[in-house]
Amino acid sequence: MHRFGIDLTACWRPRVGMVTHALALAQAMVDLVEPRGLVVFSSRERPAALSGEYEAILSPHRDELANKLLWLPSVEAEAGLDAILYPYWPPPPRRHRAAPPAAFFVHDLAFRLRPAEVPWQQRAYLGTVLPPALRTAKATLVPSQATRADLLGSYPYPGLPERTRVIPEGPTPLPGPAPLPAGLEPGFILAVGTMEARKNYPRLLAAHRALAGAPPLVIAGRLGWNGDRPPEGPGVRVLGHVDDATLAGLYEGAGLLAFPSLYEGFGLPLLDAMARGLPALVGDRGALPELGGEAVLAVDPESPEAITAGLRRLLLDAALRKRLAAAGRRRARSYSWRGAGEAVLKTMGEIADH
Fold this sequence. Notes:
Blueprint: E1 4-8, H1 17-32, E2 38-43, E3 55-59, H2 64-78, E4 83-86, E5 102-105, H3 110-113, H4 120-136, E6 139-142, H5 145-154, H6 160-163, E7 164-166, E8 189-192, H7 201-209, E9 217-220, E10 236-240, H8 244-253, E11 256-259, H9 268-275, E12 280-283, H10 288-292, E13 297-299, H11 304-316, H12 318-332, H13 337-353
Parallel strand pairs: 1-2, 1-4, 2-3, 4-5, 5-6, 6-7, 8-9, 8-11, 9-10, 11-12, 12-13
Helix pairs in contact: 1-13, 7-11, 9-12
């Protein structure tokens, strides 16, 4: 029996984005392996969202650099692992000779392709640790074919195409829906995502303002890195970060999802919407057309007029909404965290035995 490790030291943060991915994938792996066949490296305490039998090794640090530069290089080499997965950030830039073979996820290439929309700290960190990881890791994992193409176009390293594998995500494991926030009636336009530049909220708000008599635009997401003020305007309600039950209630109560993002490496809010039969408008960039296929209405995200026209079409065409909802449910059934966990464990077994 193999003994695998997974790095969750970054997953003490609120469960959004890559934290959701890392925790949901780790849970699938715990469920699939033999009891205590997975070693989880986490920061200070076991992740509250992770259940089941696994071995935990706790870091005294919260800081990413302290964990990657000081703590993980020694403990990963001493844990008796056959392979280790880094699902959040790349492996430590300097690893011991005794370190197990590593696989890691690259979630998107925003820091290379859209640098103005990424904080300088993240650009500097990934610019430093990603190149050596791509050269030395036994497997590089990406969530979409679009991200694979972006990665290989940005880093044309020998042998990298053969070591890069696409492993899509699954829907967010949400609980039963909570009641809608006070004063909110079903049928609103929902936007989900961190309030940052590449989520394209200014153009979405401009498009919404141009729709006479449109339902309210409800935005669920935390403030982003650049400290911009939350979006505001007539008919706009900003909820900020919401808990999982409230998010489930918003998906259930919305009339459609507006997700005209400028760039996504996968697009988890879209998959969550499709899984619940919520028709969606998306940007025609990055991985969103790949994920949505025939189940979405894709528009030019840099054109407020195109976003307005798409929203108007969805709001007025009940038959289109019904068709997209049915297609979304069908399409979402092919994505699961169990499937992702099986693919990751297969990859880790291969690099362990190589």
